[in-house]
Amino acid sequence: MTPQTGTGPLALETGIDPNVRHLDELEVGMRWKTRGRTITEADLVTFGTWSGDMHPLHTDEEYARQTQFGGRIFHGPGALAIAFGLEMSLGWKLGSAIAFLGIREWNLLAPVRMGDTLHVTEEVVELRPSSSKPDRGVVITKIQVLNQDGVVCQEGFWSVLLTRQAK
Questions:
Q1: Nearest to residue 23, comparing CAs of 130, 142, 102?
Q2: 159 in helix, strand or coil?
Q3: Are 31 and 2 in contact (CB under 8 A)?
């Protein structure tokens, strides 16, 4: 099952994305794929500046050439931040997410370089209705951040508290 993001008349007229999913509307195995996002020099400078991470691996080409990466790479946490934005652009949680609960087993598997185009795949792997609050529950999704060549650069599991559909 591959839901699409909503841009139809309902979304434009009401501001409600018709593809929002509540906990009860999800099934283990549901999958989504985001649009692509190309990493630029401006991304590197912006992330390095606001995070304070100006390590020469990111900012000094001569230094970075001497490393195992053979050149500058984008910040690992920067790619994670971009993954958050890409995943949110899917729209299925807009209006149903209560809180982001955490990340589990997040691994950085391959470097992200300027010029790489990233996209995110997401798969529902667990659904857990709350035993104390019947109006909500937890969805756990497996997230993969892939580059234009299909290389998985980062992956792990995200937990989100979602509303249940009103009955």
A1: 130
A2: strand
A3: yes
Task: Give 13's contacts (C-beta < 8 A, 6+ positions apart).
Answer: none
Token match 């993954």: residue? 83
Query: Are the CB atoms for 152 and 11 separated by under 8 Å?
Result: no
pTM of the model: 0.87
φ and ψ of 61, to 5 deg: -60, -40
Q: Give the integer Cα–Cα distance in Å for 65 and 60.
A: 9
Q: How many CB atoms lie within 10 A of CB 88?
A: 15
Which tokens belong to 163? Answer: 């509303």
Buried b (16+ CB within 10 A) or exposed e, 43-65: bbeebbeeeeeeeebbeeeeebe
For 9-18, the pLDDT digits (tens) are 434 444 556 6
Closest CA to 156 of 103, 110, 97: 103
Task: Report the amino acid identity of residue 132.
Answer: S
Summarize pLDDT for 146-155 with one digit per residue, the tens.
999 999 999 9
The token pair at 49 is 């500046």
For every residue of 56-124, DSSP letters joined together read HHHH-HHHHHTSTTSS----HHHHHHHHHHHHHTT-TTTTTEEEEEEEEEEEE-S---TT-EEEEEEEE
